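We give its fold:
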Amino acid sequence: MIFKRAASTLIPPKIVSAQQLGAAPNAKRIANVVSFYKSLPQGSAPAVDNASYSKFLGKYKSKFYDGDNASGKPIWHLSVAVITLGYTLEYFFHLRHHKDH
């Protein structure tokens, strides 16, 4: 019963009705849920302007993330950056001491 009550608040009002939940049709709780879902914006989200990012990040985002240009290259870029940074730190803190031996 508790799970049914908790899950009922997550169901959009076009699917749920007061009769399905076992409540009176004029229940205040269902009215709150319906009014919440009616107040949500409808339709597609407005386009985000990349000008709010810095020049590099805006260009990178539009090249690899937005629209039809989406690809898996940022994963490769991240892995190369992590490997490069890791080797650089390893060299600085450890390997440079052993270069003559």
Notes: The chain is about 55% helix and 0% strand. The radius of gyration is 27 Å. The chain has a mean pLDDT of 74.
